[in-house]
Design a protein that fits this description.
single chain; alpha+beta; three-stranded antiparallel beta sheet; 4 helices; 22% helix
Length: 140
């Protein structure tokens, strides 16, 4: 990987390259260098007192706020690390989940697909919110 400095960044990338340090890999992904992560492993950064997903910050600097009902999608395979503006676009949650290859999807014991919205991580394991809710109803 090569390290990218401000002088190497294109004009579109200048807005974030001075703030978010990255290295460029062989797929032209801009891999965020800081190691701060959320519970799902996504790169996070604090800018002007506000916590941001690094990829969402980059997207909003170029395109403005993410439209309501949309989220920032990675078009590359580096969903948790890449901040290249060329690899990001807004899309629905369903579109975002549909782009995950079948072999990368995780399922609970009951067969529910574990997505960001219906699962949570605890003790480094993924847990199904659907199964948890069903169990609470059965126990009540």
């Amino acid at each position: 990987m090569q390290e990218c400095s401000d002088s190497e960044a294109s004009s579109d990338e200048d807005k974030y390259s001075r703030i978010l340090e990255y290295v460029v890999n062989k797929n032209n992904c801009h891999i965020f260098k800081l190691s701060a992560r959320d519970r799902n492993g996504y790169a996070v950064v604090k800018i002007d007192g506000k916590n941001w997903y690094a990829h969402k910050y980059v997207y909003e600097q170029k395109h403005g706020p993410v439209p309501a009902g949309m989220e920032v999608m990675h078009l590359c395979k580096n969903q948790r690390d890449c901040i290249s503006i060329n690899h990001l676009r807004a899309g629905t949650h369903a579109e975002n989940m549909a782009q995950i290859p079948e072999d990368k999807k995780e399922f609970c014991a009951a067969g529910h697909e574990l997505t960001r919205s219906n699962s949570f991580k605890f003790n480094n394991n993924l847990h199904c919110k659907i199964c948890r809710a069903l169990k609470r109803v059965q126990d009540a």
